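does this look right to u?? magnesium ion version
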Amino acid sequence: MSFGFRIGAATDVGVKRTLNQDSYGLSERLAVVADGMGGHRGGEVASAIAVNEVLDRFVEPTMQALVSGVEEANRLILDHGAANPELRGMGTTVVALAWVALEDGVGLGVINIGDSRMYRLQGKVLEQLTEDHSLVEALVREGRITAEEAELHPQRNIVTRALGVSDVIEIDDFYFTPTVGDRYLLCSDGLFNEVGAQQIATMLATEPDPQAAADQLIAQANIGGGRDNITTVIVDIVNEDDAAMAAVPLALAAPLPNTNVDTGSGDDGAAQVEVAIAGADDVAGMDTPQNTKRNRWSWRR
Ligand code: MG
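got this back:
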């Protein structure tokens, strides 16, 4: 089976910050989101390096190309930080989804470091496919706090893995065969810290246009508080002939003006969609080096 991407993407500074340190990048077969951190303009520089390196290194559509893009970005961020005192200590998360050639056909490849996320909406189930590399995720895993407590934890923005910290990086990477009709969401924590999984699932399940859905999720995050930069990239898996990409620049896309969105907080159509937390099963057909727990939410009318 071959397939293509139909992509919508948006980024926004939020309502509390003055700089947008998130970056995203798109090509016909690749979507990347990075959430930079560091003083002055360090976060912006780090996230832009990550996005650009992952895009640039993805010449052959392979898992190795994805991984080498991340490794090269890490080296560049460390080098720039060492050479520029004002950029010292900058870092970034990175999550990417790509069309990759596999031994037995084609599939989707994923790489992840940090606490940006990738979700999949398949049928009526929303599932987080990446694992957060964050302090609160570790505390939840160790049973020291609950998932509910993690959502409100004061240190929920502390990441345990990022680019720009060390020469040695541990990259989560996995691949699998997708199904036409699946929808993927890559996002920075500015989305899911403001918008609950149920609301995310409802938007993804009810807004067919990926660009409109990406814009509306950002608007919801701003309504939710907008305390951080927000980036949303939605990738619909379509038949190859239907592939199309939103007309957006590559890295460091300009923030979009907030769109007016009915968030469904009242008794309107969106509120009729129900999302329930389901058990964490393994994802069928997924080849992954680590057997992570995944959060799943299913919705139904
Ligand atoms: Mg963030």
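Residues 63-83 form the longest helix (21 residues). idk if thats expected tbh
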